[in-house]
Amino acid sequence: MSDRKVLSEWVVQPGTGKAVELLKGQILRIEQVEGGQCVDFNCFNLHDYKEFMHCGRTRTVHGFNPSKGAFLWSAPPRERAMLYILDDTYGRNDVLFPRCSAYLYESAYGFSAHTNCHDIQAEAQREYGLTPDDVHDSFNLFMCTEVTLDGRATITRQETKAGDHVDFLALVDVLAIPNVCGADVMRTSNFSLKPIRLTVFEATDADMAAVPKVPVLKSQRTPKDFRNATIKADRALSRDPSYVPQFTNVPIVLEELAVPLTAAEAAALDRVRLTHRLFATVDDA
Residue 273 pLDDT more than 90? Predict the structure, then answer.
């Protein structure tokens, strides 16, 4: 949109990534420069890095290939919408495959030194004090994947062109970290590496109005609700001798609950029972 104010721009070269502070109400456009390039994307709450974009929750809500109109959700117990995909000109993204790593290229291809998404992410976010352990599963932009009938996930070539882009609207302040995927020996980026362009815009009123309302639920928690809100500072694990279990909703109690049904509802339930018995008989045979 031509009426958006441009706040910053970068061209990110192969083998690199860029950590971008994206404030609530700002848009990050991730754009193809030449076409055919996969982009791995991580995202953290700018004010609490333990809240991060969670591919598992996003996959559960929006499927294997989230696109325009989908939210990027944070992990439980927060489970907040962090970003909204305002636009997606290609429409193929992936939340099935993990980021590529140094181990992958050595174990599968024999390359003991090779550019890879994990190391790129780790280096880009090091600018903000994060470690390689803090890299999380990536939202894989422009990555064409599918699941076969026998349950295998596969990657196919992509057909993005220069100018194809994904626009993320920040719903909270985040640290957004895209990187140029290092997979040059597979179909992920069509067997080559190309730069990408990043542009940060100020969202317009129309942009903000396009975001569907998301309810705030009682089950969504922040550190103030945790029994232990202190981030562990050392790496070794040791037992807390003062620990007393306080599990939620324990002990579990089973109770019979009478549910009144109308005659029509009772008949429908009987039909379901009959169908279940018929299928069970066929399976046993």
Answer: no
User: Would you say the pTM of this structure is higher than 0.90?
Assistant: no
pLDDT score of 3? 86
**DSSP structure string for the chain:** -TTSEEEEEEEEPTT-B--EEE-TTEEEEEEESSS---EEEEEEETTEEEEEB-HHHHHHHH-SS--TTPEEEBPTTT--EEEEEEEESS--EESSSPPP-HHHHHHHH--SS---HHHHHHHHHGGGT--GGG----EEET-EEEE-TTS-EEEE-----TT-EEEEEESS-EEEEEEE----SSGGGTTS---EEEEEEEPPHHHHHTSPP----TT---GGGSS--SPP-SSS----TT-----TT-S-----------HHHHHHHHHHHHHHHHHHHHHH-
**What is the tens place of the pLDDT at every residue in 57-78?**
999 999 999 999 999 999 999 9
